[in-house]
Amino acid sequence: MQIRLLCFAVIPLLASAQPPAPTINFDGVIRSDTRSLGTLSPGTLFSVYGRHLGPDAGCHAEAGAAPHELCGVAVLIGERPAELSYVSDTQINARVPDASPDAGAANLRVTVHDVPSKPFEVRLGPLPVKISLDGAAHAGGPVWLHVEYPEGGGVRYPEAIMPWEFKCDHVEVRRDGKELTAISPDPKIGGVLNGNPCGSIGFSAAGTPLAGRLPLHLRFNFDTPGTYEARYSFRFFIGTDTRWQSDWLPIEILPAAPRTIGPLPQDPAAILSDFLPNVLARRDNEALNVVLEYLYHPNKTVRGYAAMALYYWPDAEVNARLVALFKAKGPEDAVVSRLDKSQLPELAEAALPYLGSEDAVQMRGAMTVLNNALNPYNPPLPSQLRSRVELALVRAADHIVASADPQTLNDFVVTLGSAGGGASHQLLWSLVKRNVNAEQGVIVIAWRKDPADLPKLGELMQSPHDPPLRSLPYALRNAFGAAALPYLRDAMANSAVPGMHEACAEELMNAGDAAGFAYAREAIQQSKQEKATLISFLHDHYAQTRTADPAALLEFLNKPPAP
């Protein structure tokens, strides 16, 4: 019997494991300009957070490049690819292309080696906002715009002590298709941005009738009855795209109505979110009287708002009223800041009796006057008046120390430094020994650059003090230059004050002194407590250290650049 052998070819099935699909977190698409959820508009930088979004080690685009695919990763917004700068397992940094739509919504997908994520809906262009007129509006009267945010909450006013400043809330007004020019009481007024640029100074609480509205009459003039149109927009930073926006709203301005100003409230919330903005709708002499009255309110924010409101009136008119007010009610810091520098001698003479005032507003106003009058950048006082000012400051010291608020006390110490006489100099040392605003005191003493003070200031760097005088090394080097370096070296080596060693080392390095670099090298090698602080200092001051590895950083400290 013939046996047939059946041979089967075993063909292996070569199958590769499917990589896991990229996953976007439920809140994983974040705008880079706000670090919060937001709409994506053309040119917006954003990040995507999740898992399996790219290579574990991370992948950067080349400098200046904006690829649509990076290390196998792509991001599609609708059908348009985003520009990628960085991809990793948990994060993607990208930019919305300029040609993208600026309205509506789209699905965002991440693909990794052609494996797509589930779609993630993003908003393109601003979210809609509802606005309405808050009550009847009359020509020459208050015009309040109510704003209802799409995600709850609402605008809050005031947002700054400038009555006309709406910060991130932007309002346009037009009539017959022509845009109205916003009121600019004084374009010279500026400010430094600190903290949240859209934050309110916070008197209107959410849920009260005073929340959610803006006084359009403080930004635009509505002197003529008729139909206007308004539109609200929200931009987190100046120059960024609009995140929320309303449609144009027709608003009817009725004929002028009589105005009655009732009793002046004293509650700051009532004053700033309702009463005073309403009074300012008609900027006449009656309104000016109310504003001047609030210059002496005990609340600092009310005083500051009232002082800024004065810019709605001409300088000459305001200046005459302020001088008369100063003489009748005493000095006040906002009043003083608005007056002409040529009046400082007259104002300083009038301010002297108020150094002993029990009224905190008057005392602060007097200190502001004298601080300005003795400021070396202002015209000098006559010598006899300067001597009287110094004597008055010294005599009032105990009362000021016992009664003044922290800011007034700080200004008192600064003013003593500007006085320049022997009596004020002795008083400054006395305040330092009593630990009365001692840190500001030693800085002011250093300003005088008296060589006799240098040894005593050097000793203070080595003695424990509460709080520590950590700004003293900078003050000494800045005032005394090379003469201060031996004292800085001594304190760096021997001080018992926490934080003083690295402060002295930093100032020595700023001066190009080898001892400072040697101290930093030792601290980094031995991982001393101040290691991180000194490395941060080096990164900030020497660009070549920012990318240096530990060995290169130590080599830099061994051969630092010449001063």
Describe the structure.
The structure is a single chain. This protein is α+β, with helices and mostly antiparallel strands and 563 residues long. Among the domains are: 23-123, Immunoglobulin-like (Sandwich), CATH 2.60.40.10; 127-185 and 198-254, Immunoglobulin-like (Sandwich); 462-563, no CATH class. The protein has helices at residues 268-279, 285-294, 300-309, 315-329, 333-338, 344-351, 360-374, 383-395, 397-403, 406-419, 422-433, 438-447, 454-460, 472-480, 485-494, 500-510, 514-525, 531-541, 550-558, and strands at 23-31, 45-51, 59-60, 73-77, 80-81, 83-87, 91-95, 105-112, 115-116, 120-123, 127-133, 137-138, 144-148, 169-175, 178-179, 213-215, 226-234, 244-246, 249-254. Strands 11, 12, 13, 14, 15, 16, 17, 18 and 19 form a nine-stranded mixed β-sheet that branches. A hairpin with a 2-residue loop joins β14 and β15 (178-179). α10 (406-419) packs parallel to α12 (438-447) and α15 runs antiparallel to α16 (500-510). The longest helix has 15 residues, at 315-329. The radius of gyration is 33 Å and the shape is flat. The chain starts with 22 loop residues before the first strand and ends in a 5-residue tail after the last helix.
